[in-house]
Design brief:
single chain, alpha+beta, Alpha-Beta Plaits, 2 domains, 5-stranded antiparallel sheet, 5 helices
Amino acid sequence: MSEHEHVTGGPRLLSPRGMVTIRADFSELKTGDAVAAALGPAFPDTNCATNAKGRSLLWMSPDELLLICPAKETEALIVAARDALSRLPGGHHLVVDVSDARVAFAIEGPGARDVLARLTPADLRPGVFDAPQLRRTRLSQVAAAIWQSAPDRFEILCFRSVAGYVARLLEGAAGQGAPVGHLDRDARAGSRAR
């Protein structure tokens, strides 16, 4: 079987989008609520992503979110986030445009999860990693974030400086001669062992 039966069109670089890092003390509920109200998507649960109004809000760490938005909205949303956070008493915050520092890839099809499993130590089995979950992990030798943005569709974020390397990794893992079904074999082996 070719990769096209398992991964639709192979991995692809997504069009440039706005990406904004938001750092603040999100242990305060009002801080997360203020950001969500200003940006549109709900405040995400730990290791998750939320979507609304064509924007995504990704939980990156206890004090860091990443907003992904249409490029033309980036500046206005930075102003909105800074304004919302500056109205809160006493807390520090940082809102920075990182659009030029990162890129996003998408990989789709029933074999997409399996392709990613070849490259990362993260447990991507269905039921363990599903939408709206997000993982910060590694793809081979580089840092990346992965989330399932739709059934059989995963988005991968990495630094722009390693984009060529990540593209080659994804293409190689999805290419002909790279057998798929790893996760399916694990599931079958587990059911036989019970």
